[in-house]
UniProtKB/TrEMBL annotation:
Identification of the protein by name: Uncharacterized protein
Gene3D superfamilies registered for this protein in UniProt: Phosphoglycerate mutase-like
Pfam families per the UniProt record, alphabetical: His_Phos_1 (PF00300)
SUPFAM superfamilies listed in its UniProt record: Phosphoglycerate mutase-like
Membership in a protein family: In the C-terminal section; belongs to the phosphoglycerate mutase family.
Gene Ontology MF term list: 6-phosphofructo-2-kinase activity; ATP binding; fructose-2,6-bisphosphate 2-phosphatase activity
Domain of life: Eukaryota
GO cellular component, one term: cytosol
Coiled coil location: none
Gene Ontology biological process terms in this record: fructose 2,6-bisphosphate metabolic process
Length: 103
């Protein structure tokens, strides 16, 4: 979910997200972690989050968010209003729930 509260997709960081990345990079620098390798998904926001960290980076598709199928780009409110049965099913079992047309 992004600052527009939309499900899925890859988005740029908000100003608060950008400030967080700077603080995170400084924290990691201060920790002096030996042989650190940073794993990110292939999504823009995770790549941007790791960009300021002074360490090798690897992008892993397995870390990408799941595809929300027909709900990609909708808000949870829109899903609740227009797909009430699916919204309830997801609420009962988020771990096992599969988005229609998605994962």
């Amino acid at each position: 979910m992004n600052v527009q509260q939309r499900i899925g997709g890859s988005s740029s960081l908000s100003p608060a997200g950008k400030a967080y990345t700077e603080a995170l990079a400084q924290y990691i620098t201060n920790e002096k972690i030996q042989d650190l390798i940073v794993w990110t998904s292939q999504m823009e926001q995770t790549i941007s989050t790791a960009a300021n960290i002074n360490a090798p980076k690897e992008q892993w598709k397995a870390l990408n968010g799941i595809h929300a199928g027909i709900f990609e780009g909708l808000t949870f409110r829109e899903v609740a209003e227009n797909y009430s049965e699916e919204f309830a099913a997801r609420g009962r079992s988020k771990y096992y729930y599969r988005y229609p047309g998605g994962e």
